[in-house]
Amino acid sequence: MSGILDKERIIAGPGFNRWLVPPAALAIHLCIGMAYGFSVFWLPLSKALGIKEAIKCAPDVGFFGQLFTTSCDWQISTLGWMYTLFFVLLGSSAATWGGWLERSGPRKAGVVSACCWCGGMLISALGIYLHQFWLMILGSGVIGGIGLGLGYISPVSTLIKWFPDRRGMATGMAIMGFGGGAMIGSPLAADLMKNFATPTSVGVAQTFVVMALVYFVFMMAGAFGYRVPETGWKPAGWTPPPAQVSNTMITQKHVHVSKVWGIPQFWLIWMVLCMNVSAGIGVIGMASPMLQEVFGGSLIGVAKKFGELDKGQLAAIATVAAGFTALLSLFNIGGRFFWASLSDKMGRKMTYIVFFVLGGLMYFSVPGSAAAGSIVLFVGAFCVILSMYGGGFATVPAYLADIFGTQMVGAIHGRLLTAWATAGVLGPVVVNYMREYQLGLGIPREQVYNQTMYILVGMLVVGLICNLLVKPLDAKWFMTDDELATEKKLAHEKMAASEVGTSTDTSTVSPALVAFAWVAVGLPLAWGVYRTLLSVAKFFA
What we know:
- This protein has 541 residues and is mostly helical.
- It has 19 helices and no strands.
- The N and C termini lie far apart (55 Å).
């Protein structure tokens, strides 16, 4: 089995079609992307024992008591810690095992990711069945979070090496899948829970089992679909850009991952990602209540503020707000491919300048559009903001490859994802606590987000300054020829597949196989878009 997973065994022969690698990456990212959609389970899980109504815990049963209690239901705030763990573990595991991934190859990392992510869901299902929240924390939160991190970075280095001519587009395709995972998984989970629900069960445990099995098949198919190019491979007819220009932002040399913690440019790009994500992720979590509180009854043609609405009207505007959230998810996903592909033309540094300048203007415009009662301008601003939030994720791997080289870009990307873990705490804290602070001062609900928007503008200004300071690396940071040769040997790189006797990849890949691979990931994605558009229609209605 280890031979099948070894990096030497997945070197592509001359007949391999590089367009088979993006759907393999998508197969993994569409599965682990369900991490974004786990909130669909919170409400049913908060009634796992009571079924119709939650059985509330006694006042003396705190967070740690809920880890082991079997006599009362979990609070939604307690369940939310799984979501926090996802992104903390994603960043930390990607940083910890990124170097191992580069040397072991994407297939082995993909298999480990599938076992952790899907195995974690099965452990969580057991935790739901036994009503033991610590099992869910261990299963999906910790083990699943490790699988999340490894799965997220597994295709980065490989895609960049297969598409040196279109680095942004290649990584954009894969990371678009991570954004689309919840778009497929959330409605699928809702349908499964509805199907499995009984008078004595909310159906979440069974849903976890089914989704774990389905995801395992897709993720293993993706892992075994990975191939790495021969050393020195490049697309037919493509010539690398000349390296003689001293101030070029695209290097032909390579930095070892062990050195990046001490390189100023790494920390500048770390801040670039952290500020971009902090601003966007804080808004994502509050998008629905923000729209409802700012516009109130005007969302359904009623001239009343949020606090003046009755229960039926509140339910009606909640439906509209759900459509708004779905619309934002489409722009989040589309932006990952659009902006990353555009960065191949504009350059990575200029793309981030656009993110920060245009994003800052959008955030700054929000209080004005809210005060004017312009729903169109308000929603339009957030659609643009969310497209650039997703675009930031998809563009940064290519940015790293430009600055630090491609040899260990997957491992370097893994370390950079600690910025995401930081932003996952910073962004929501700023938005949520500022909202509570403003409400405590007696500020009307429709105005409580104004100061927050200006704080987010400040974050983007910090990100802009950091991005402007990014310069090409000094020669001292790059590996020497001897060091690079040693690293290639450790990474089990071979000049050609024939060196290790692989013959399975030497024949020409059938176009039908390429088409089948794209259909296999395209159909679920299309279904997810369709279900999302149904929700979006409620907003426009």
